[in-house]
Structures
1.
Amino acid sequence: MQQQIDFKKFATYSKAGPRYTSYPTAIEFNTDYDYKSYLLDLQKDTNPLSLYLHLPFCRSACYFCGCNVIYTSKAENKTRYLSYLKKELSILKEQMDTSKDVYQLHFGGGTPTFFDADELKIIIELLRQTFPNFSDEAEISCEIDPRFFTKEQMEALKSGGFNRLSFGIQDFNPQTQKAIHRFQDFTLVQKAIEIARNYGIHSINFDLIYGLPYQNLQTFKETLHLCLKLNPDRFAIFNYAHVPWIKKTMRKIDETTLPHPEEKLKILEYNIEFLSQNGYKMIGMDHFAKPDDELFKSIAKNELRRNFQGYSTKGGTQTIGIGITSIGEGSNYYAQNHKDLASYEESIDKGQLPFCKGIQLSLDDKIRKTVIMKLMSNFKLDFKQIEEEFKIDFTTYFKEALEELEPLREVGLLEKTNDGLEVSQTGMLLIRNIAMPFDAYLKKFSNDKKVFSKTI
Ligand SMILES: C[S@@+](CC[C@H](N)C(=O)[O-])C[C@H]1O[C@@H](n2cnc3c(N)ncnc32)[C@H](O)[C@@H]1O
Ligand code: SF4
């Protein structure tokens, strides 16, 4: 990065804001959007499918974790969950055209590898029976906690067609690991990666988090250097979303040990510089990939999309959320499953999908969603493209948002050209701030900091 960045100044831009894995954000999902409306939307969407399966169980709590997790070590919980998944899939088969092509499947958690090899095989078989038309080029991925990953599980995933794995690394610093209650040394991770590589997995992602207790530029450099020795194909380096008012386990983290926004900006800038020197390119807000990675190629094809898993190479799909708490996304809706096991099971026992709430997108939502997702994915905006797609005059429609962006433009976070907006290298570090003026729902939260995590 050539520019000298004034970290002190930009650290003051840190404010509460969405991560825009959806627009409208999940906080806008509501029960006015009812089951009947959802079924109609689910059925009329003609796009090919992307499947997300949530496997919620974890053996112990990582204090930083913002995911929807159930802590347990009991095997009977898995058996019961499996039996409900089976019923959910058969209801889906009754309610929608499950013969559409499947472009993507993702197992997320929780810890998918809480399920043993035989159980994973059963789940994969059930999915393939329900959705028989997987594309030959489907991306089939699973989140792996390296502390719980065996050769047998790898074999089950491989024989089920899995071709990408994402490993939760977080940080290698022992002091940080102690503070977040997640212990995994380099050798343990190295062994897990070896298993994956031995089974011919060519796409390996590492999840890291910056902003965790006791991290500073030096400690994070060391973590990154260690990671590089294992040569992952992608990195997802998340900004720690600290929301202790929502996630109780985060209250175990001593806030005085968290790095200051200025330090976090330095870490982020270092990540970008170090990874680009080592053959990775930044993609969207928090991802990095090698130039031959599909994620990177999808930018050139204009297919990169932001979604609940971060970024995806497949635009134009209908996402079906399966399992507790999962979120589905169609061309004009979002739909979320029940978050607690009792309600999830109750719906299924009634022969209904475990739908809990959602939102049907208005035309204004669709316009703003397109704008925000383009900014979050490509760091630029072509006004004409939006004007042609939605038959609007961009500068009139977004007069207020463009005015709100002026101060950010004046300090060099973005440029306004005749045709659109272009985010600068420094602006990339603050992309959430740049997207926020286009969000029509945010105004009501302006004085309420206890909704979203901080942008830095
Ligand atoms: C759904 S979790 C599952 C990962 C898997 N269970 C593991 O721990 O290895 C996926 C990733 O989300 C990230 N994550 C979880 N909580 C977060 C938070 N509060 N802020 C930022 N990233 C978070 C972590 O990097 C984690 O690896
Ligand atoms: S980070 Fe992974 S293993 Fe840790 S609690 Fe969250 S989902 Fe479970």
2.
Amino acid sequence: MTVSQHSGSGSVADLGSSPWDSQHSEHDYRVTDIEGRIPEQLRGVLYRIGPGRLDVAGHPVDHIFDGDGMISRVEFSDEGVRFRNRYVRTRSFDTGNRVGRPPRGFGTQRPGGALANVLRFPANMSNTNVLRHGDHLYSLWEGGRPYRLDPDTLETLGCESFGGALTRLGAFSAHPKTDPRTREVFNFGLDFFPRPMIRCYRISAASAFSEVRTFPIPRLAFVHDFALTERHLVFVIDPIVVRRPVPVILGLRPFDRALSYVPELGTTVVLVPRDGGEPVRIEHDALFHFHVNNAYEDGGDTVVDLVAHDSSAGWDGWNGHLHDYRGTPGPAFGGQLRRLRVTSRRGRVTEETLADAGCEFPQLDQRRATTAHRHSYVASASVTGGNPDSVATIDHETGAIRSFVVGDGNTVCEPLFAASSPTAAEGDGWLLTIEHQAEQRRSRVLVLPADRPDLGPVAAIGLRHHVPMTFHGAFEARAQGR
Ligand SMILES: [Fe+2]
């Protein structure tokens, strides 16, 4: 099924095969092209999501964050592997089909100048991450509400407000954290009226939604991710702040142009007790980061692992590459895995570099989330400034870094860990990633040994088409097919 009524323009395709080519069709089929052997213990569902449609009727979106959310589902069962992809039926997706152009996004303006954009908030593309909780599957976008999807068919069931609890902006960020011991989910949402604040949420194991705590922040900042320990929600708030809002409100410039990196403001770490107690703030030197990998309590300290980036180009330099997403990604995959140790009683944060290799999209064996972990999994660029073409396992105990590079100009995405069994030791399992094959203009799902990705995939699942670069996803062990 082809979903865009205006698909097929040559203007984007003529630029050559790119992991950022739109996939306008929706597929559903049993995969027969499998190299190697799917491990018998690998059973479950891999969900991936990203901006699948980066041009509407031949009009490319101007920013990597502004493509329509497309979710892919890869089911590993005793019958084999099944692939399915569907677009999230957001309001903007339907409108795009009708009017034949992208909506105003984070970095994309509607055609028609200021009048066409004035007082318009960026459209909710629901393209950033998924949350699997209980019987529910949600697609997420950090500036608005989640969409509820059928976990099997991927049909869009509607926009979710959790019983009206997500009010006003309704932001429910794209990096919720699940405590593997309690099955609680914690998340946050930015709000700016009447003043900038962060709202913290909890969803119980039984799917009861509640607000944990709301705390003010001195200025509206770009806060993409957070961390969870057994006791705290941990926010590392960098000085990527709104400095130039007026031209944006007037419709003269897109939203991303309102942001600036202002290192003299420093980074603020905020520890919010999970029971809703008083938050503690600790000031630190300015950092520039997007993703956190894990966090945990260690004695009286709180430890947070994140991917820190070179901030010398500032927000504008960084963001320029997000606009030029079909060009070079610049520093996007050249981050450094770093460990912050927050000693709140002394009001101090210390930093340690965990690995020199450039990386992004950090992951771990999610059964270790909120407690100390030994292995981190990352996507990285083997060439500085290049696209992500390798998956690496970092062993924090030995310091070993083992990488698999796909080569041939192909790319990979965030690797997700799948355990070989629920009781297997940490790291005993596989890494799942989607390789975009530039020349073939197709994608493969790669299954790599998590401890030795350098040995190459044990299985490569050849899809009939390509899957555009995905941002994030989830692996659910043991599919509950209906
Ligand atoms: Fe993210």
3.
Amino acid sequence: MASSLLSRQLALSLQYNLRLSAPGCRFASKAAPKTQVEFEYDGPSMKTEVPGPRSKELAKQLGEMQNVGAINFFCNYEESRGNYLVDVDGNRMLDVYTQISSIPIGYSHPSLMKVLSNPNNMSAFVNRPALGILPPENFPEKLAESLLSVSPSGMSRAQTMACGSCSNENAFKSMFIWYRNKERGHNNPSEEDIRSCMINQSPGCPNLSILSFMGGFHGRTMGCLATTHSKAIHKLDVPSFDWPIAPFPKLKYPLEEFTRENAQEEARCLEEVEDLIVQWRQKGRPVAGIIIEPIQAEGGDNHASPDFFRKLRNIAHKHGCAFHVDEVQTGCGATGKFWAHEHWGMEDPADIVSFSKKMLTGGFYHKDEFQADKPYRIFNTWMGDPSKNLLLAEVLNVIRRENLLEEVSRSGKALLQGLYQLQAQYPNLLSSARGVGTFCAVDIRDEATRNSILIKARDKGVLLGGCGDRSIRFRPALVFKEYHVHIFLNVFNDVLAEYN
Ligand SMILES: Cc1ncc(COP(=O)(O)O)c(C=O)c1O
């Protein structure tokens, strides 16, 4: 079935040999040729505005069953491939946002289709096990082939989970358990611990905290939400913990032009972190762990230097706090290194690294000492999904075989260069272009203009995402090549020209 779908897709791709022909001046990109024959389309192709009539009709139907306020449009995933997402009205868009940054190697990748059609894999897709109690025979081998083959430095253990939030939530629990066992000096809880935890009281439910950063995003479950500080809409009306929140550096871009000011700003934030750790210890609510994104994503693509992270890591060491790096959005290659924290150049970058999105499965890596000491402490029914490990193993093969990290660095440079050029061309509209690999962003003069640019770009066949108050974030798949960058820049240029 999968192979006939593939050949139908190949035939279709020959039919759709359309080139983008938007009017107006072309972005000054030189050669942007395709370097290889691919199965994907040649460019965007728009038939209606988005959402089109069919999408609107479906939204009405779904609206009878769910809140549809966030739905952009309905998709035709059968026809979507590579960097192109096709909607139910037949519009084909270059996807530079990829399902909130979660498609690693484009839509309907032939290698992933093959994994699905392999009879040896069928059972993993049909029989979803309760992994924590009844794993399949090949689980250790598949885990080694997938997640453990890309373990962050110093970590040889990985716990799979479902989504980003439940990965962080369980990682927090691991840090608290580690911290309490460290305080006790052993892992045998007292009678009082056991009795008091059942009524949500200390010492069984201890007054411990996680330090997070203003602007950070770590998910929407109750524990994670206490460490999320990107937008009020995520947090409103939900009770939270009294945990410390440190300022995240507000840097000036391009970073290399403002090294002195930026270093001062980072030093100010680090000082605040240390003060908060001391204050919360004095308050009787010690900081068991620090959580941070290598680049704050949802909060506005805010960067900090490797030096900042190295110093923060040292502060965590000094005060006996666990250091949790949330790579849910930055992980799996988007910055040109597999993990964004690799840019810090550290042998011991973290105690815990959580992941999800492009990794296809959620979960977290951890050092040995963060392994929960008893069964069922870090546990849920599914604890991940072995079929996702099969797909991830193949994604990693494709990344290696096609040198996609190099590709990301190359297209990332072209993207950032293009954004710099557009920023110079439209100084009243764009500012603070920034990025590592294709993990790039640019600020727009205000929120309303940002939102209208996103819609105009979509109507011209390019899907982008917003972040923070007024930024646009670029989150293409790892198969986004230089010629895709140039297709994007041309459309973006046409959109921006409408505001002059
Ligand atoms: C850095 C980060 N952490 C955690 C999450 C939560 O992941 P999920 O939406 O899968 O729960 C996200 C989601 O955007 C994220 O970007």
